Amino acid sequence: MHSFKKTSLVFITLLVNIACQQSSYIKSTKIIAGKDYHSFANTEDVVITHINLNLKVNFDNNTIHGLNAMDLKRKNPNVKHVILDTRDLTIINVRTPDGHGRILPVKWHMGRKDPLLGQELVIEMPKSNKLVVEYVTSPNSTGLQWLKPLQTSGKKHPFLYSQSEAIHARSWIPLQDTPQVRQTYTATVKVDKNLRAVMSAYNNPKLMTRFRSYSFTMPQAIPSYLIALAVGNLKYQSIGPRSGVWAEPVILKQAADEFSETEQMIQAGEKLYGKYDWETYDLLILPSSFPFGGMENPRLSFITPTVIAGDKSLVSLIAHELAHSWSGNLVTNATWRDLWLNEGFTTYFESRITESVKGVEVKNMEGVLSYQDLISELPELHKKDQKLALDLRDQDPDDAFTEIPYTKGKLFLDWLESKFGRKNFDAFVKAYFNYFRFQSITTEQFVEYLDENLVKKYPDVIKLKQAKEWIYADGLPKGAIVPQTQVFVSIDALIEQWLNRKIATEDLAVDSWSTQQWLYFLNGLIGKIDYTRMSELDLAYNLTKSQNSEIAHVWFLLSIKYNYDIAFEVMEGYLIEIGRRKLIVPLYKELAKTEKNKLWGKRVYEQAKAGYHSLAQVTIDKIFIK
Ligand code: BES
Ligand code: ZN
Predict the structure, then answer these.
(1) Which of 22, 183, 395, 577 is the most buried (most CB within 10 A)?
(2) In the structure, what pLDDT confidence band is assigned to residue 150 with cuts at 50, 70 and 90?
(3) What are phi and psi of 619, to 5 degrees?
(4) What CATH number did the domain enclosing 525 receive?
């Protein structure tokens, strides 16, 4: 930027900032389908088609120094500016090649600012249709977590990973941060000695680490929320013809064993909905502070280590992230309002892969457990948040990830399957993925496709109005198919008998129980037991020391409810070690219910907080402020 203009621009920017800071960006009375309320980008005028990143990862000050070289496509021939999304980025300069081998500065300024969306980077549209932005990230970038060696499994090397979904890509790359824009990307990442970079792209395990510079190519066009990076002491182990695990050496073998069914899952997916389109499918095992179970970064799902149970009982998570290779990564939600197209289809698809690889009983058990989660969450949600097509204006899209898009979305597809029959419905879904491949689509485009290709094709099966009720009405429609399984019916009976002391604790015959049976059993005790009964169970089955993160989670929840103090010390370790929101947030919420526990919880949180991802911190901060 020319310096004589700088002062006046700064002044204007300041005024705009003051004007925009209070009220949030864009308010209109009617929701416009397909309008992304979570991006500043002027995508109707111009879109990015390719990104070439040059990143230097700096663990000394927890920053990335980056060059983002973009190829642009004009949609409006008169476009004057390109508006990119940023959050907490320091822009150093913006340049463009002049076509004669020289590189010229381009005018730019920081534009409107919004607490939820970050800040516009407004750039004069260059003739060349090419831009290079040089920038530095902030140590507090919401899309990056920087871990000290002690926060990793190996304890010797630092670790960095990104989490871009939903709108955090903008905090480490200036770009059009909307799922409507798809781009291919290439990248070169420089890291320190003994560290290795991996990305949501092809990761060549044979590349040597000694050059400290890694190159990546993602030849398929993807939305910004799927751009991902991790850096750490990572090693690779193959687990199938097109799959492998990336992990710190100390957990590599364990992880490779746990996820040995991955190739079978890919084949199950292909059999259902067509070829896996991304060539390789690897898993990256993150440190235990990763705030999610998994993230479907293309070619390289990011996975929490808390699903490594030793018995492959929690691997539906892999089925889920893999399923996103079709639902989400191939056919993408156009805006976060349409999130259910990603997560609902994926949860349905996940259950089908699980059925194929683990059997129908496991699928049914998991179906019941997630249905229970949905039923218990529903009353806590405002009516407007119970719709599949969400109104997220002025709302953080991270808050949209409730059981609604996932489980209500899945139940909708279960219902359609039951109405049209599996054969016809499978053919429909397969054709849907094929028709919209590499596109981002709205709920309304889905509804139209459904009408044309299922509802009208098989008249008199359902009315489109019924499908629309699923999408646009709150609650669960009548006729929803409630998952069930005989296995759990038997557990209900057992619970009854055990509560009435008709069966002794030691005789529960739990030796043969799967993780899902345990979870159902323990969930079924909520509201029905006391301290004594807890200690009987613990004595017989050592639940306080359970190494299964999900079982331990429910056990701790019960422990808080019944003041089972024996478990608190171990729970403290659990809360400090694990950062996965689904496992820790409900515990903090339960702790906050009584004064005594709240004090204890706060103290533990103070110790644990620094190790948590900022997303987890934000959620838990809210619990203790209330
Ligand atoms: N896409 C999500 C992860 C995500 C959630 C990113 C919220 C940003 C905000 C991922 O596919 C997912 O759904 N993960 C679940 C897995 C589970 C439902 C099997 C998780 O992390 O719990
Ligand atoms: Zn998902």
Answers:
(1) 183
(2) very high
(3) -65, -45
(4) 1.25.40.320
